[in-house]
Structure formats: structure tokens, C-alpha cells
Amino acid sequence: MAEEAPKAEAKVAPEQTAATAEEEVTVCPKCKQEFKKSAIKDNYNVCIACGYHYVVSAEKRVRLLVDPGTFKPLRCKVAFSNPLDMPEYEEKIERLQEKTGLEEAVYTGVGKIDGNEAVIAVMSSKFLMGSMGMAVGEKVTNAVEYADKKHLPLIIFTASGGARMQEGILSLMQMAKTSAAIEKFSEHGGLYISYLTHPTTGGVTASFATLGDITLAEPDALIGFAGPRVIEQTIGQKLPDGFQRSEFQMAHGFVDQIVPRDKMREVISHILRLHAKKGR
């Protein structure tokens, strides 16, 4: 049963002090220009010159989205499992938990956006590339079921390399599990906003990421199942420029709207207000 944690706060990795950040610089991977890290941080972790979207932590994305002080993480008990006895898998998970402050590759909770309450799930590519194993599948399903039970809209931010190879077929089973939960939620009239970020690939793309009533995406995000190199090797042809990027997907009807990070809160708030009139 999905449950909301009372007064729970996210455990997050410590951030650099402003003084330290101002002394450091970063080179944009896209335009190759150099900027102070503090300037990028203050600009939604987006390049000031070219608009390149840096990876942002799950906790920061939540802070950029919700009304201050309204977010409460969802309580969902997930136990570590290593069904294939993969060497050092447990140690790797523990290191990532310490580094990111997250329990797993998805962070779930309930918060308000301009006063409109919603269930929010944010995947983190910093945690084993946002791969979906049993714990992620359970946490996503728990969030969907909570939204269904409380008659709240659901917003999921995806960022994933796909199913988690360390858990074999059990990770692939999460595709069916999460998709079934979304289908039930949809049958009950729930609003599901899927927001695709870089990268959204593999089993996550082939399941809950692409089942949204409204599908948004960040600019230039890689969105697809297999990667472009695998496809080129399989078909023996060169793919067109921008293949599988957000703009390409929108042009082919796969995405409804491309939403830069600085417009994320505004656009989602507008959608929630429109659908709130339906009484769900």
C-alpha cells in the first residue's frame, strides 16, 4: 500500500559552497565555451550561450518544480536484491547511495506546483544510469498507485539507460509491472504527464516513459529504445542527423512539446490548472 512519509525530508549529497563554486569553471560539452560553475548553476544548470542542458540531480529538479516546503517523499519499502549474485553489486549500490543521497535510481513524492498537488517521480542518471531494476519498478509502481488512490495527477521525469543488467529477467519484468499500473491509473481517469530527459532509452522508453497522456521533453534529449550506433550496425545505413533527439521525435509525433528547463514549472503548472477543472 502506498504511503506518504510524515515530515520526511530527502537525504541529499552536500552541495559546494558558493565561494568554492565561483572559483571553478566548466566547459560546455556542446559549444565548448567556458563558464563559472556558479553561473551555470544559477541558470537551471543550462548553458548560458547555447542552451545545453546539463544533468541535474533529482533533488534539484524537485526544488525547481514544486512550491517551497510542499514536497514530501513517499514511503516505499524496497529491499536490496542480487538475484544473479553479481560481484560487487551491493557495494556499488551502497557507494551510489552515499554519493547521491538517494535510496535508488528514482525519487518519488508528493508536492504542490502553484498550489496544485501532484505525485512526482524523478529518475536519476547519476544512479547506475537510471537503470530500472526491481527497486525502481516497485517505487514507480508505488507512486502510480498512490496517485490513483488519492486522485492526484502523476508526473514522471525519466532519465535511464534501460533495464538493469545486474538483475536479468527480473528487471525486464518491471516493464510490464509499471505499464500495468499506468494502464489502471489511466482507466480511472488519472492525468499522467511524462517528461523525457536525457537520456531516456531501453526498457524505460518501452514501458511507462511513453504512456503519458501528455509527453514533454527537454531539448536535445536522446529518446529511443536501442542506441543509434546499434541501429546503424543492424540496418547497415547512416542515420539522419539528430535522429532520436527530442526535436526529431517531436517532428514525428512522438513528443507533444519540447520544454526547456526554465519553462518546466510554468508549462506543467498550466497543464495541471487546465485539468484540475475536470475534478480529478
Automatic annotation (TrEMBL):
<dbReference type="InterPro" id="IPR000438">
    <property type="entry name" value="Acetyl_CoA_COase_Trfase_b_su"/>
</dbReference>
<keyword id="KW-0436">Ligase</keyword>
<dbReference type="GO" id="GO:0003989">
    <property type="term" value="F:acetyl-CoA carboxylase activity"/>
</dbReference>
<dbReference type="GO" id="GO:0006633">
    <property type="term" value="P:fatty acid biosynthetic process"/>
</dbReference>
<comment type="pathway">
    <text>Lipid metabolism; malonyl-CoA biosynthesis; malonyl-CoA from acetyl-CoA: step 1/1.</text>
</comment>
<protein>
    <recommendedName>
        <fullName>Acetyl-coenzyme A carboxylase carboxyl transferase subunit beta</fullName>
        <ecNumber>2.1.3.15</ecNumber>
    </recommendedName>
</protein>
<dbReference type="GO" id="GO:0009317">
    <property type="term" value="C:acetyl-CoA carboxylase complex"/>
</dbReference>
<keyword id="KW-0963">Cytoplasm</keyword>
<comment type="subunit">
    <text>Acetyl-CoA carboxylase is a heterohexamer composed of biotin carboxyl carrier protein (AccB), biotin carboxylase (AccC) and two subunits each of ACCase subunit alpha (AccA) and ACCase subunit beta (AccD).</text>
</comment>
<dbReference type="Pfam" id="PF01039">
    <property type="entry name" value="Carboxyl_trans"/>
</dbReference>
<keyword id="KW-0863">Zinc-finger</keyword>
<keyword id="KW-0276">Fatty acid metabolism</keyword>
<comment type="similarity">
    <text>Belongs to the AccD/PCCB family.</text>
</comment>
<keyword id="KW-0443">Lipid metabolism</keyword>
<keyword id="KW-0547">Nucleotide-binding</keyword>
<dbReference type="InterPro" id="IPR029045">
    <property type="entry name" value="ClpP/crotonase-like_dom_sf"/>
</dbReference>
<keyword id="KW-0067">ATP-binding</keyword>
<comment type="function">
    <text>Component of the acetyl coenzyme A carboxylase (ACC) complex. Biotin carboxylase (BC) catalyzes the carboxylation of biotin on its carrier protein (BCCP) and then the CO(2) group is transferred by the transcarboxylase to acetyl-CoA to form malonyl-CoA.</text>
</comment>
<feature type="domain" description="CoA carboxyltransferase N-terminal">
    <location>
        <begin position="24"/>
        <end position="280"/>
    </location>
</feature>
<feature type="binding site">
    <location>
        <position position="28"/>
    </location>
    <ligand>
        <name>Zn(2+)</name>
    </ligand>
</feature>
<keyword id="KW-0808">Transferase</keyword>
<dbReference type="GO" id="GO:2001295">
    <property type="term" value="P:malonyl-CoA biosynthetic process"/>
</dbReference>
<feature type="binding site">
    <location>
        <position position="31"/>
    </location>
    <ligand>
        <name>Zn(2+)</name>
    </ligand>
</feature>
<keyword id="KW-0862">Zinc</keyword>
<keyword id="KW-0444">Lipid biosynthesis</keyword>
<keyword id="KW-0275">Fatty acid biosynthesis</keyword>
<dbReference type="InterPro" id="IPR011762">
    <property type="entry name" value="COA_CT_N"/>
</dbReference>
<keyword id="KW-0479">Metal-binding</keyword>
<feature type="binding site">
    <location>
        <position position="50"/>
    </location>
    <ligand>
        <name>Zn(2+)</name>
    </ligand>
</feature>
<dbReference type="GO" id="GO:0005524">
    <property type="term" value="F:ATP binding"/>
</dbReference>
<dbReference type="GO" id="GO:0016743">
    <property type="term" value="F:carboxyl- or carbamoyltransferase activity"/>
</dbReference>
<dbReference type="InterPro" id="IPR034733">
    <property type="entry name" value="AcCoA_carboxyl_beta"/>
</dbReference>
<dbReference type="GO" id="GO:0008270">
    <property type="term" value="F:zinc ion binding"/>
</dbReference>
<feature type="zinc finger region" description="C4-type">
    <location>
        <begin position="28"/>
        <end position="50"/>
    </location>
</feature>
<feature type="binding site">
    <location>
        <position position="47"/>
    </location>
    <ligand>
        <name>Zn(2+)</name>
    </ligand>
</feature>
